[in-house]
């Protein structure tokens, strides 16, 4: 069981939580991004750099992800793909994507895209706050407790 991080858009505060959790629980954690990124030295932390391009990092995560892995992403289509493979997806705000809620999230995403493309101002995502970080850490800890490293 491994953790995969869609690292291009993952907030620094969330990466720091993941770095500490990887070492504490001895869980292999791999960040995937299309630009260079510094990670602390640890035998549990890895970095994969992919070429720039649409969904290149997402496709790499889908290719490497296995059943029972955890994927950290705010990308709802990526979450849907890894859930279909039997993995779990958690967004940086602490929301766990599941088979029972991912279809609704995809529909809402598509609806918002349609609104934006027709000129409707939908606003952006609010900044990550302390409650978001706490929700993320809590759901990460729950997942780690249910999936102890070997």
TrEMBL record:
Pfam families: DUF188. It comes from the Bacteria. InterPro entries: UPF0178. Signal peptide: none annotated. Belongs to the UPF0178 family. This is UPF0178 protein tinsulaeT_18760. It comes from Thalassotalea insulae.
């Amino acid at each position: 069981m491994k953790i995969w991080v869609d690292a291009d858009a993952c907030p620094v505060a969330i990466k720091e939580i993941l770095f500490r959790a990887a070492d504490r629980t001895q869980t292999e954690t791999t960040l995937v991004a299309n630009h260079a990124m510094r990670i602390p030295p640890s035998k549990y932390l890895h970095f994969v750099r992919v070429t720039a391009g649409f969904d290149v990092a997402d496709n790499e995560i889908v290719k490497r992800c296995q059943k029972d892995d955890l994927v950290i992403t705010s990308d709802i289509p990526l979450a849907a793909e890894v859930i279909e493979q039997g993995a779990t997806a958690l967004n940086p705000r602490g929301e766990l994507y599941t088979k029972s809620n991912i279809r609704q999230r995809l529909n809402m995403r598509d609806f918002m895209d349609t609104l934006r493309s027709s000129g409707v101002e939908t606003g952006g995502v609010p900044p990550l706050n302390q409650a978001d970080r706490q929700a993320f850490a809590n759901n990460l800890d729950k997942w780690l407790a249910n999936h102890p490293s070997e």
